[in-house]
Amino acid sequence: MDAEVMKARTKEFAKRIIRMCRKLPNSREGWRIGDQIFRSGTSVGANYRAACRGRSRADFIAKLGIVLKETDETLFWLELIVETEIMDASLLDPLMKECRELLAIFVASLNTAKSRK
């Protein structure tokens, strides 16, 4: 997938995470989980941009590994929000779908980059 398309897609994902965080309840678990998912979800796009500026293939692979880790962590928090009924699953299904798609893209990209090493 084109890097510019992925930059835009991951930025939009970050904006969706921010909007979702605004809807979390004003409670202890809402604050804690909100802080965690805010950090991981918004860092996906920032770290993807950093990976695109990698100075070498090894640097790109290392930074893309961080993107993958942050995306997977974001999916964890989304699942936790649903499983603990902090938010209704129907509200998060589209966001979780996008997160899974991004995760699959990053896994494939990382595997491709490693195989070309």
Description of the structure:
- The chain is elongated, with a radius of gyration of 15 Å.
- 85% of the residues lie in helices and 0% in strands.
- It is built from four helices and no strands.
- The chain has a single domain, classed as de novo design (two linked rop proteins), CATH 1.20.1440.60.
- The two termini are 19 Å apart.
- The model has no long low-confidence stretch (mean pLDDT 95).
- It has 117 residues and is mostly helical.
Q: Measured on Cα atoms, how large is the radius of gyration? A: 15 Å
CATH architecture: Up-down Bundle
Q: Tell me about the biggest sheet?
A: none
CATH class: Mainly Alpha
Count of the separate structural domains: 1
Element-level helix/strand string: HHHH
Give average pLDDT, whole number: 95
CATH topology: de novo design (two linked rop proteins)
Task: Tell the overall outline.
Answer: elongated
Beta content = under 5%
Determine the fraction of residues in helical runs and give it as a percent range. over 70%
